Fold this protein.
Amino acid sequence: MALQSVHSVKGTIMRSSLFTMLVVGSILSATLSTEPPVIDYHQHLFSPEAAALVTGDPKSPGIGARDVIALLDSAGIRRALVLSVAYTWGKASRASVDDEYNHVKAENDWTAQQVAGYPDRLRAFCSFNPLRPYAIDELTRCSNNPQLRDGLKLHFGNSDVDLDNPENVAQVRKIFEAANRHRMAIVVHMRTSLDLRRRYGADAARVFLNELLPAAPDVPVQIAHLAGAGGYDATTDSALSVFTDAIARHDPRVKNVWFDAAMVVRPGMSADQLQQMTARIRQLGAERVLYGSDAALSPLAYPKAGWEGFQRLPLTEAEFKVVANNVAPYMRDVPAR
Ligand SMILES: [Zn+2]
């Protein structure tokens, strides 16, 4: 009895350690199979004022460059593109704030100062609501700031740029033309407003391809979240299909277009959804797909968790490697060290 129980305990230990080895082995192969990305293409900083505005907590400390550097370090990622959230001061679905343009300038400038402390690791893009009367002034002002002149972030959802509205499209076209003149790259969250229930899908993506991209032929354009807003649904897929079709026919308008995959993989996604996204990534070509984490407002968006989540896609080792090592033109002169 005593012996037997020793045997069975030993057996259990052996089985469980083998089990542990197998489990640990599979976790390692699932999460550590590919080196971390060289660049995180979708990060945000929040000044305490912007954090208070967004979270409703007046004591929110915000997210500074130091915080993001620590998160990048824990993921083994050296460089990041920081997209100013100044546009959120002009958020269409929030009551307007007094002195909006001053807040926009202050947020862009604060972001620039934060990033200036880490010139070998962080680059900032300027942002604003492109439909506001001050939009061109702010673009011009940013183009004169060495920390902000490399590019713009436009958030069509937050700013309520409606791609069904020809006036909105004409206004944003002017921003694209101005960015092109100043050789500023453009990161765009193309998905129109969910809060305001704007229509979105292939038609909207065609407007982007036909009316906006031709206005900025000389600068790279990074379409965020694989043309969605995080996650992946049929609407995003239909918008993205406009670009995969354009790429397939070698349409010159998409020669300088990149896609970031920030927050596209969500917990609980079905194997079918992961497969569908993988098929689209292959149509885009892994060499156009950039890894991004998104704002560190939830642990799921921390760079380490974000990269682990992205690796749940059934891409090959070689494809993950391509994505991890992509360097878009606007990050080429941020030294990797
Ligand atoms: Zn974002």
Observations:
- Residues 1-32 form one domain.
